[in-house]
């Protein structure tokens, strides 16, 4: 074991880091496009309810496992296991989450690479370098490999500096930058023609679709993905929280920020779609359905920015910088999951472990880039559709069925004595035992059938 474990130095630092992990492409790209294709505000309401009623309790399960274990995901799960069989199960769940995080990072880095090249493209246009601008804007092997590698190096550089000087310091810088750009863009888009129609579509619910099972399943899936559940990340971030901290309120802040940013991103993306529509870019079919979720960010919105002239260059720059920052704060958490394990299990130095794992992940990313049509969709489906819900479910089973109720509640009570007298926390272990696994199982089965 390494001599001194890292720890977040402040509440604010933890909240920024965990919210940074949660707030990613899932919020700024996934949530608004899902909302637009699933009945607007009805999806928003379902998402809000499910995020607080199901995803928050599951997030608390993962944070509590980590804070109790004060170790990487595998060791933390082992500490609450009572026999050899359970310890084996702990390894499967913890190590499975670590692999899942690494695989998510390997496709996330490719998408983030596109975001960074799209951020640089307006700069190349502004300085008049047409050849660079064309290279940056077109899909090519060289561009994709270079920017994927660049993004992984950036992630490695932050993680190799450790918890306080790496994760915490950079999350504290990047998250406020993300919020500033997001709000500046919203103000700009709201002033354009067509924005109000978009706002109405986003905020006025069609109550007929709110109980549509497909909508509920998508909303729950989105809530779990967005809180980075089932990837060991929240276990490892939980392990860096001091015993004096109030875990209950920390988890609530993270959920609130995650939901808030998804909501606010909707205020940007959905009105922007209607602004684009007003400017003649085709977004919706004659029956009002979103034409394509995949092309929205890389074709529809850039077409909108192009139509704005020079100011569009600045808006495009800000938009893709926002996406790149959101991706970076999530990717550092995905790398921390395997790195913390390697450091503690094999007694490797942090810098060495980070570069080693970063290199392995880069090799996986390159393999995906080189076999894009076959592997890209496959890795996304494997991690987000299968592994995340299954591992998230297993974490709930661990806390609900294996961890002794008293020891579990004792852990949460440290730093939050009110838990002892709260009805919610009396019910919570049952929730984690029955309701969360059933709900996650439902999402999983429906996504298999869907
Ligand atoms: N939570 C992030 C997102 O919403 C990632 C999920 C890390 C796997 O994009």
From TrEMBL:
Main localization (coarse): membrane
Keywords: Membrane, Transmembrane, Transmembrane helix, Transport
Keyword NAD: no
Pfam families to which the protein is assigned, alphabetical: SNF
SUPFAM superfamilies, per database record: SNF-like
Domain of life assignment: Bacteria
PROSITE patterns the UniProt entry points to: NA_NEUROTRAN_SYMP_3 (PS50267)
One GO CC term, this protein: membrane
Keyword Amino-acid biosynthesis listed: no
InterPro entries reported for this sequence: Na/ntran_symport, SNS_sf, YocR/YhdH-like
Cleavable signal peptide: none
Alphabetized CDD domains for the sequence: SLC6sbd_Tyt1-Like
Name of this chain's protein: Sodium-dependent transporter
Organism name: Pseudoalteromonas arctica
Classification lineage: Bacteria, Pseudomonadati, Pseudomonadota, Gammaproteobacteria, Alteromonadales
